[in-house]
Amino acid sequence: MSDSESSSPLKTIESDPLKRVGLRLHKYSTYAAFFGGFTLVLLVAVNAASIVGRTLFASPLVGDFELVELGCAIAISSFLPLCLLKKGNVTVDFFSARFPHKLLHSLEIFTNLVFVVVSATFSMRMTLGIQDFYKYGEETMLLQIPVWIPFIPVLLSFYLLTACAIFGLASHCFPARRIS
């Protein structure tokens, strides 16, 4: 085996479980983001159909705002995991720009830990909420859609967000293994 084969990026990824996990999370997060984008396209079509129906036939789609409300929840939650992995969250580094590297690294670990706690708490509470929606048969007012059904992709997105937050924390705690 030559030196170029033994030091290939693929071999490095295969030998580092944290990088493999990171690549899988990125892949799943990308799929979730595409799903969120597709959901938004469907919402645009629903809105367009409702506007055309209201304008031409004086009859909008019944419950169009319910569909938009549920679809927006699905879309927004679908974008969160990829946003976290790509470090797309808003940060204010006006004060921390001059901090020493070690302090910045410690702050990143702390914020990742907070993100893990918050996303895990949201995931747990949403799991309990969906169980309650199912148990009590809560439905939307006009379309009578059981509320727990559209919340399944939201919950899956929050579980993925929690996994991405744990990965972010692990990659900051083990910087030598950090994926770039």
SSE inventory with pairings:
Layout: H1 3-6, H2 9-15, H3 17-57, H4 64-85, H5 101-136, H6 151-173
Structure description:
The protein is mainly alpha-helical and 180 residues long. It has one domain. The protein has helices at 3-6, 9-15, 17-57, 64-85, 101-136, 151-173. Residues 1-6 have low confidence and may be disordered.
What attributes does this structure have?
180 residues; mainly alpha; elongated; disordered N terminus
Task: Explain briefly what this protein structure is.
The chain has 180 residues and is an all-alpha fold. The protein has helices at 3-6, 9-15, 17-57, 64-85, 101-136, 151-173.
Domain unit count: 1
Query: What is the count of helical runs?
Result: 6
Please estimate the helix content.
Answer: over 70%
Topology as a string of helices (H) and strands (E):
HHHHHH
Tell me the β content. Answer: under 5%
Unreliable parts:
1-6
Could you give the distance between the termini?
27 Å
Could you tell me the radius of gyration in angstroms? 21 Å
